[in-house]
Every structure is written in structure tokens, then in C-alpha cells.
Amino acid sequence: MNYSMISESAALPIEVSDWYASFTARGGVSHDTANRIYPHAPPAELIRGIEETLVYNSVLAEADQQAALMSMIGQAVVFMLGDSGHVLTGHSSLFSMMHNTPQHRIWCARYEDNQAQYGADFNIVFGYAQTNETLAQASEMIKQYFIGL
């Protein structure tokens, strides 16, 4: 099953916007207030020319699963920081893989008062123990990290 992601601020073609609007019961979720993920994707003919496909490099994954995951996250980040008016599509398992990473949790700054998890994720992502960095600061730090790649 394919999922899709769109920017909350980018202008989509009216036909694509209308297609998404027709799914009010499955309106998607926004974890970062800038992008929305849907549990479905528009038909290929509707997004021809504006579709970006999320890629997980399985050949790279055979040698280094973490590098393959980070490459895919990097692709998603470029999309998420842009406002192209495109639609990112990919198998639901790929979106789930990204969702379950410390990078995602820090990006979205969602810890519901779980300071221990935040500290552990911060150490994994940035390579040092979290000191005075707030969730908002860490979220900006992860975005800057990916911009610099």
C-alpha cells in the first residue's frame, strides 16, 4: 500500500487538492505542522510530473542498513524542507521505517514529557549528551544537520 506526503504550504494542482479533499475521513496526519502524510496516494495519472518516489536502496542496505535508511531520510528531508507542490509517494513500510527513528522524533519534537527518551535520541542523533538544548532547538538542529549533507 502506498502512502503519500504533501507540503502544507505548497500549492498543488487543483485536481490533486480536490482528490485529497475527497478523503475527509482519512485526512492524513501532520507530525511537524509543515507536511501531511496520507495513508493513500493519488492515482498515477493525476500526479504525473509532480510525483517524487521515496527510494530505499536495497543494494546499499545489504552492506549498511543504517546508511540506506539515512539516505532515504535525506531524500524525504529535501522534500519536507521544500515547497515544490509535488507529492512524495512510497510504500507504507518506508514511511514507517522513517517514523520509528530518533531523527523523526527529534524533528517533530514530540516526546510527551519523556525526557529519558529525548536524551537517548539526542545522544544517538548528535553524538553527545543533551545538556540545555530544548526540543525546539533540537528540532532546528536536526533540520540544519540534514541541510548540510
Question: How would you describe this protein?
Answer:
This protein is of the alpha+beta class and 149 residues long. It has helices spanning 14-21, 44-47, 58-63, 65-81, 92-99, 102-108, 115-126, 135-147, and strands at residues 2-7, 35-38, 51-53, 87-91. A 4-stranded mixed β-sheet has the order 2-1-4-3. It is globular.
Quick tags:
four-stranded mixed β-sheet, 8 helices, alpha+beta, 149 residues, 4 strands, single chain, 50% helix, globular
**Average pLDDT over all residues:** 91
Distance between the amino and carboxyl termini:
30 Å
How would you describe the shape? globular
- Low-pLDDT runs: none
Major beta sheet, specifics? Answer: 4 strands, mixed
Fraction of residues in helix = 40-55%
Q: In summary, what is this structure?
A:
The protein is an alpha+beta fold. 50% of the residues lie in helices and 12% in strands.
Topology readout:
Elements: E1 2-7, H1 14-21, E2 35-38, H2 44-47, E3 51-53, H3 58-63, H4 65-81, E4 87-91, H5 92-99, H6 102-108, H7 115-126, H8 135-147
Parallel strand pairs: 3-4
Antiparallel strand pairs: 1-2, 1-4
